[in-house]
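At this stage, I put together a protein sequence along with its fold in token form, as given directly below:
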Amino acid sequence: MKNLLAKSNNYLNEIYIDIGKCEVIKNIPCKIKIVLGSCIGVILADTELKVVGGIHILLPNYKKYKLEDKNITAYADTGIIHLIKIMKEYGCKESNIKAIIAGGSSIGGTDYFDIGMQNYITTKNILNKLNIKILHENCLGDKPRVLIFYTDNFKFNILTLGDNKQYEEDDFSSIDYSKFLNEINEIKFELQPRVNKLIKLIKLQKEDTDLNQLETIIKSDDFLALKIIKHVNTSYYSPKTRITNIKLALSYLGIKNFFKFIYSELMNSISVDELKFYSIDSRGYKIHAFTVALLSEYIAEYSDCNPDELFLAGLFHDIGKIFIDKYSGLKYNVSDRAKVLKFVENSIKNTLHAKIGGDFLKKINIPDIICEAVYNHHTPQYTSPEFRRFVSIIAFSNSIVSNYILGSNIYISKLPFNSSSDIVENLGIDFNTLETIISQIGYFFSIAEELVDD
């Protein structure tokens, strides 16, 4: 659909894209506006050829929801393909097209088969299959939005209606994401000296380590010895009499629980007093991580997944946030870093910290299944089939715990799944059991508090 615009003087022409419609503009300065609720607005741009396409998606799948007028641009799966086809007529190549997406709200918040979420998931899947990079997204939640894109300078605004907030960004092609990721991975953080010792202990897990060898290593570090004695005497383990020496502590814990303790200490050693970018203190971060770990471990009772691996994946699922926060403190001043990092996090649906965390765990030889869960704890639908149930448990626990801590009602439509039926399919757990699991969150939260305050 080629759009002809009348000339104007010093003001940009405004193109309003209605529901189920698309527009393509080349070399014409204008303002594209898309008003969104559960719909998804997609902007596709080729900055070299100065071609911009926009589409207002109403529903996810043409075959499932098709209307009488057979309007293919109303659906994510057919509309995006159609839009790209038109852009190719202008000489565009998929490899040069970049995307911005917004919308997908859950208006009302109680729909188990959330159209907004389905629109979002389908749109992401289509763009990923076409290898079109999503440079920014502002999706989901429960507020309507207005997406505004300026074709003269490739800048955009996203207004969230109802709270008088406006999100503004500079030229969306100005940030080099590959460089950004490489700098975070390469920067040498000044970590506590104990971190290297803990990593060495973790590497012993793959060997035939006996309790005597571990006892010798622990006794060489007074602080670590004191911590393990305090840890084994918490209510989580509840020994009948207080344990006061390392050998008894190791015997009572066993090899598996000892290494869970070491992983926990690694997280404690890496953590900072406050994650300023994420506006959370260290205690709050750790309580969230431990609660997700404990809940995931509990869910293992209803699945065929390894409970120890689930605990570790839950414990480390957000560890990338620590590295991003440290990097931002070194790279940007307070006013700039919040803007830049918010842009980058939103650009890939809160998965920058997941990638950074997964990369770190790979470096210290953490098992692949745990790294996969960290990489995809916000996007379990993108993980490989062999890991999907495991990753889905971490994603489910993270969403449930986040809602609990925030004091929000727990709606299945808020979780990182296409629908309630997908939750059951991915987890392999029926709804009655899910209710039982959810009822235990308060208990695991209190245990997490004790472990953190230990």
Notes: The two ends are 64 Å apart (CA to CA). The domain at 184-453 is CATH 1.10.3210.10 (Hypothetical protein af1432).
